[in-house]
Design brief:
365 residues; 12 strands; two-stranded antiparallel sheet; alpha/beta; ten-stranded mixed β-sheet
Amino acid sequence: MARMLEVVVVPSTLCNLRCSYCYELPLLGDKRRASHEALRVIFERVAEHCARHDVQTARVIWHGGEPLLLPPDYFWKAFELQAEAFRATKTEVVNVTQTNLTVLDEARIDLLANGFTDRGVSLDLFGSLRVNAAGRCQEDRARENLDALLERGVGMTGITVLTRANRRFVRRIYQFYAERGMNFRLLPLHAGGYEAGKWFEIVADDTLSGFKTLADCWFANDNAPLIHPVVGVIRDVHRAMVEGQSTGFYDKRSWEPLLIIDRDGSVYPFSDAMDPEGCYGNILESPLDEILASASHERVLQRTEQRLAETCGACSHYGTHCSGVPVAEHTQDFWERGDDGVARCTAFAGLIEHVQRRLAEHGMV
């Protein structure tokens, strides 16, 4: 069976911004980067894993820090090493990057346009939390650079972190992206390198409200952009209610489609990004198949399965309208928890029920 694999590669954590909620705040001044030799080993071992498991498409997502602080030549050389590593496989490789888009010149425009298949820009649009080291908001610069790229035909997607600063502007956030024909993701704020209790933190009901607003925007517009994760929920609910196709259950044991590889070669799942207890192993030291057969990997699998059993086990949507991916793979620190410590699926369960009502109102069920 053909598969897809997404691998987030973090070549550097260096960043020119100091966003108030960033989970990497202590690392943003570190100028160290993954060497090209390290990238060669990473690509060779990922390619080997893809060939062994019939991976049809590998999405390499270049993250940071701010990736565009690295010189464009760094990426062009990396792409050469990547192509050589995958040459003997049948896997199609696409390169994606996520940038704050505050650093842009002709060389970087060429890199974005011709080096990467997909490009994402991080924008909060409201709240002035995306600041540089001097505390100055950089949203206007990023917007100007975004519009300059769009005018030159360089397609972009968006990602906006939902915080207390912009939670009341979700409809305007939608309009911003819709006017530019951009798909985007609304990402709930999770704990970062800041002390708990900051004014910009949100609760699960804020996330649910944002998701519901975006679902309503999507239903009201025949040409709406793709809004993640909302459109995925709408798709799954529609398939279950209208087409009779259940989602089934997410099985991380049979195939793990999402991995993060840090600058030093450490491999993590999405659900435990950069958590030392969630580290599977090091790809510079061991083949990926060996890492995914390790005791560390088994420990994370068991923790994931326990989480699914506790949070999803009694849910009527589990296996029909939802496979359990949000609980299995989404960052755990923004989940609402009961007195027993069990995560409550407030945002996604609430969104599923909201979509069910909207489908009924539109006469689709």
